[in-house]
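Dear colleague,

Thank you for sharing your sequence with our group. We've completed the structure prediction you requested, and as agreed, I am returning the results in plain text so they can be pasted directly into your records. Please verify that the sequence below matches your submission; if there's any discrepancy, let me know and we will rerun it promptly.
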Amino acid sequence: MTPSTGVKTLKIDGRDFSARPDETILDVARENKIFIPRMCELNGLSTVGACRLCLVEVKGSNKLLPSCVTHVEEGMEVTTTSERLTHYRRMIVELLFSERNHVCSVCVSNGHCELQNLAQKLGITHVRFPYRNPKVEVDASHERFVIDHNRCILCTRCVRVCDEIEGAHTWDIMGRGVDAKVITDLNQPWGSSATCTGCGKCVHVCPTGALFEKGRSVAEMEKRRSFLPYLTLMREEHE
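Please find the predicted structure tokens below.
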């Protein structure tokens, strides 16, 4: 560590980089155009390390570490691509597909889904695990929006953006493990929520289109991702 600047030096995939002590491995990778897959992380929101797709190898550690919550250390040597990492990332994505009812061929989010895009990037052509086929509902009680729990991957982006950016905290998680689900208020229908402001921020950060706007295609909503001026401003200041 350099006392005068507080800069830390590390290696990522054999290349030398410098970083601030408050930065994570994922921060440094993103700044330098190094691809690390992730689903729950969104620049500008708090990090929760929920999806575990951003796992990396760090020399000296037998464990795979989530890059979104692992801060850089002086002399750290990080590997972002290896057979071991690819194996685990593929397995995680396949488990996400099998946990709910993700059928790309009949899904309206087909072609505009981060989960589908990541599966293609990782070379996943089929799911080895049996689908659970849970019976989950579609809540269309809100006058403008719909939530289809069949497509939800529990990334909690909606929960965090509603709490941290909008300040409403309409969304939360109920249950544990495979029984966990995103809920509004105390598991009330979205349309009867006393806290929802109708801002739509939760809709536009959803990676799979589980949250969508009535009468508008997923592709149209994707074009409006810049609706989050606060997150955009935070990115620009960070960079």
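Summary note from our side: The chain has a mean pLDDT of 90.

Kind regards,
the structure core
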